[in-house]
Structure formats: C-alpha cells, structure tokens
Design goal:
mainly alpha; Ferritin; 5 helices; binds MU-OXO-diiron
Amino acid sequence: MISDKVRNILNEQINKEFYSAYLYLAMSAYFDEIGLYGFSNWTKVQAREEVDHGMILFDYLIDRNTKVELMSIDTPDSEFTSPMQVFEKILSHEISVTESINRVAALSDDECDLATRNFINWYIAEQVEEEAAVRDVITKLGMFGDEKASLYLLDREFKERDYRAHSYK
Ligand code: FEO
C-alpha cells in the first residue's frame, strides 16, 4: 500500500514530467521559427521522452492500485533568445527535476516504501544521462560561439536524434 505522502509526490512528479514535455515543445517551436530544424527535432524528441516519463509514473500508480490525480499543466516559458540561452534553461530545469526525483527517493526511504524506492532508481539514472547530454551541448555551443558553420553542423547532427520509447519494465 502506498502512503498518502508517496502517492502525492508521485502525482506531482507526473505533472512535472508533462510540464517538461510542454517546455521542450515550446523550445522546439522556437527552433523551428529560427530555422534550426535539427535543434527543433532534438527538443521535440525530448518532449516525447518526457511524456514517457509521465506515463511510466502513471502506470506505476495503476500497478500499485493507487489513485492517479492529474493536475493542470502550467504554461511553459517561451522567452527564448539563442540556442545557448535555451540549453542553459534546459540545464537548470533538469537540475530542478533531479532534485524533485531525489525528494521522491528520500520520501520513499522515510516511508519504508521499498517498491517505490526501487522504481525511482530508473529516474535517478535517467537524470544523470539527461544532465550529461545537456552539459555536452552547452560545452559545444560554448566552443562554437556565434560561428554559423559550426552551428549548422550541430544542427545537422541533431536532426539524427531518433525517438525511442522509454520503459522501466
Ligand atoms: Fe523527465 Fe527531463 O526529466
């Protein structure tokens, strides 16, 4: 049986994952507007992965016979000025998601909910990967500066990112 506290924090996490999907979609639209179609693809693929993250939590609550409570999704930030500024926003957003996943893990420990503690490990590992991937992009953007040719090459690389459905089972 999942405690009320763990149920609430998992429902909040569903909302955060779907908000993340909205945020990445807003970024994808911005990149499309400025003609960086590879960056647009990268962020759109990320949006789909965020939906998966929300759905995995959703399915977990169902599996545990626990009430799902879907909340309103906030309007995402849409003030974007450059690829670097967007990826810095992504990094700070993902760091905040990592902190909230860590709080789920800590609460699961406090509540002796070992199933949730085990389940959330998948997200802990996923956050390490996501933060590393975003830092990598920031490093590349930092090296290239405003050099259009390099931005074009990176954009071409990002066109290749494919969506792969995420699953924890
Ligand atoms: Fe679901 Fe980007 O964390």
